[in-house]
């Protein structure tokens, strides 16, 4: 029996363990924001991976956004050295999950197993992928204990809020340099037969319009900032949204709607703040003198970030020319440039062959509509040989009744294990 056949049998034999591991991870509610239970899940992973022979570090991202004594940003990095020198394969998964939201029919942190699916917040995004990478690595070690190089597995913080307390911090500390790590696989839920090469760019900004406060019964004595913001939104509807719909990319972005440039109005807040939930009084009658809007602009690899910003600034100047008392301010909140690994990159080719061998079909190549932690590995770590590949259906991420299929996790684990064999197994072992 070949080493690949033994690996696949080993993974199949670990089905119950894979299910239990995924359930255990889901049952640690690592909600972000605010960043709950990060240390708990890192300690859980540390115990698991030390038992498999990994050296483990817990790294707190001191001073990163959100890091504080109540909600410290903890990360886990595990490394298992082979018997001889070679390349390092790193599996990186984020440990945080988004808010539960409404509409669940099962306990979002129960890890319910039903009809071959494990339900829970973070099941597909991406604790199922984290569990699959651990089982894949452990199965590989069982059949190739005398391998070359090194395996790393990380569980990192804050991907859902930019990754600055996780992969960005680790990259700045040298954990993702080409000298230390040669291949990175991020088990995000892009479907088990697809390789994600990268992602679109993002520009977040806050636009604030200003007015003058006055009594609500005499609004003509004031200047309504909300009306000014309404003019901004109207101009977006009339000119910016149609222009963005015409911008198309050659990147293989999924789903189809993301092949164009997009802009989301993330929030608008104007006038008085809403009262606490237990406040039963009425608001005071005032003309709002400030209105703030946060925009989320996703752009294509063919676009320039300066042009992306200028489109918004030009729109505001247009509104300014039409409204006598229009005053505004723009503050950039966040920017990420698009990134896309070449199809010819070694990790892409290896995983593609593993997908075809496991599932009997050619791998599909896609680009994510939103960003993920590849951006930090690319820009800070200067490591280009990085992809996202993992189990789960992208459309289920952040939705109620999120789930991951057990068979999908097993297949993805086999793809990851086969990739380890090709990259790290010594010639005699890989026969």
UniProtKB/TrEMBL annotation:
GO terms for molecular function: hydrolase activity; metal ion binding. InterPro entries: ArgE/DapE (IPR010182), Bact_exopeptidase_dim_dom (IPR036264), Peptidase_M20 (IPR002933), Peptidase_M20_dimer (IPR011650), Peptidase_M20A (IPR050072). It comes from the Bacteria. Keywords: Cobalt, Hydrolase, Metal-binding, Zinc. The keyword Hydrolase applies. Its cofactor is Co(2+); Zn(2+). Residues 198-320 form the Peptidase M20 dimerisation domain. Pfam families: M20_dimer, Peptidase_M20. Belongs to the peptidase M20A family. This is Succinyl-diaminopimelate desuccinylase. It comes from Thalassovita taeanensis. The lineage of its organism: Bacteria, Pseudomonadati, Pseudomonadota, Alphaproteobacteria, Rhodobacterales.
């Amino acid at each position: 029996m070949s080493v690949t056949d033994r690996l696949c049998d080993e993974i199949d034999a670990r089905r119950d363990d894979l299910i239990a591991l995924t359930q255990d991870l889901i049952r640690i509610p690592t909600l972000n924001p605010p960043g709950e239970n990060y240390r708990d899940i890192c300690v859980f992973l540390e115990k698991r991976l030390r038992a498999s022979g990994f050296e483990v570090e817990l790294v707190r991202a001191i001073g990163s956004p959100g890091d504080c004594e109540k909600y410290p940003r903890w990360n886990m990095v595990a490394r298992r050295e082979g018997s001889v020198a070679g390349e390092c394969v790193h599996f990186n998964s984020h440990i945080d999950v988004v808010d539960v939201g409404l509409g669940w029919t099962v306990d979002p942190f129960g890890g319910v197993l039903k009809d071959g699916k494990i339900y829970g917040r973070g099941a597909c995004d991406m604790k199922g992928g984290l569990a699959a990478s651990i089982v894949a690595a452990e199965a590989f070690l069982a059949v190739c204990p005398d391998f070359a190089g090194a395996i790393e597995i990380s569980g990192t913080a804050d991907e859902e809020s930019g990754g600055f307390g996780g992969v960005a911090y680790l990259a700045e500390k040298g954990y993702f340099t080409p000298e230390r790590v040669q291949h990175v696989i991020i088990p995000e839920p892009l479907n088990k037969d697809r390789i994600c090469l990268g992602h679109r760019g993002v520009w977040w900004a806050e636009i604030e319009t200003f007015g003058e406060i006055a009594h609500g019964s005499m609004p003509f004595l004031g200047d309504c900032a909300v009306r000014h913001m309404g003019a901004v939104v109207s101009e977006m509807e009339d000119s910016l949204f149609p222009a963005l719909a015409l911008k198309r990319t050659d990147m293989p972005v999924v789903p189809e709607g993301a092949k164009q440039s997009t802009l989301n109005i993330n929030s608008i807040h104007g006038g008085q703040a809403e009262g606490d939930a237990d406040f039963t009084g009425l608001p005071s009658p005032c003309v709002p003198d400030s209105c703030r809007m946060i925009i989320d602009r996703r752009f294509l690899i063919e676009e320039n970030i300066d042009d992306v910003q200028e489109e918004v600034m030009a729109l505001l100047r247009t509104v300014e020319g039409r409204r006598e008392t229009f005053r505004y301010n723009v503050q950039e909140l966040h920017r990420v440039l698009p990134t896309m690994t070449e199809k010819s990159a070694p990790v892409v080719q290896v995983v593609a062959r593993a997908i075809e061998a496991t599932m009997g079909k050619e791998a599909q190549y896609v680009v994510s509509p939103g960003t993920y932690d590849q951006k930090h590995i690319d820009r800070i770590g200067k490591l280009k040989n990085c992809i996202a590949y993992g189990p789960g259906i992208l459309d289920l991420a952040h939705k109620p009744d999120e789930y991951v299929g057990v068979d999908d996790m097993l297949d993805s684990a086999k793809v990851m294990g086969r990739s380890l064999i090709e990259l790290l197994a010594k010639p005699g072992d890989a026969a």
